[in-house]
Design goal:
By secondary structure, the chain is mainly beta. It has one helix and ten strands. The mean pLDDT is 91.
Length: 131
């Protein structure tokens, strides 16, 4: 049995802030938990835009708070996000993620699981896992 809380993760190595300050992510489950996926709560700060491209991972994202949008690149299609919305990057879609007036609180699942050591490169991508 694994039991963790967001409060227990704050200020530990499982809490990561983006280099550009756009988001903070708390990693509830990572690769070493051996669940076959990783599980995150990510807060995207109000008024920010982040380019993301998970070339090597599939991700599903569920919004629990806030409003924003995803814009897929290069087709420019806009997908609004509000509480209750799920989006799945099933084609490794390159995208902009924007939060509007309030912070966006998102719950995310990655396959393959993130190890927690990944760093977004200039394309918004994480490297492929070593396995
Ligand atoms: C919304 C989103 O892409 N969240 C991803 C989680 C975060 N980049 C992390 O924990 O690395």
């Amino acid at each position: 049995m694994i039991m963790r809380t967001i409060n227990g993760i704050k200020n530990t190595e499982r809490e990561v802030t983006a280099v550009n300050g756009n988001w903070v992510s708390r990693r509830l489950l990572l690769d070493d938990d051996k669940m076959g996926f990783s599980f995150h709560e990510t807060t995207i700060y109000a008024g920010t835009e982040t380019m993301i491209w998970y070339k090597n991972h599939l991700e599903a994202v569920y919004c629990v708070e806030g409003e924003g949008e995803v814009e897929t690149i290069p087709d420019g299609e806009i997908y609004p996000i509000q509480p209750g919305t799920m989006y799945a990057l099933n084609k490794h879609d390159k995208h902009y993620l924007r939060a509007f007036q309030n912070d966006l609180k998102l719950v995310c699942v990655f396959n393959p699981s993130l190890t927690g050591d990944e760093v977004h490169d200039a394309e918004g991508s994480y490297p492929s896992s070593q396995r």
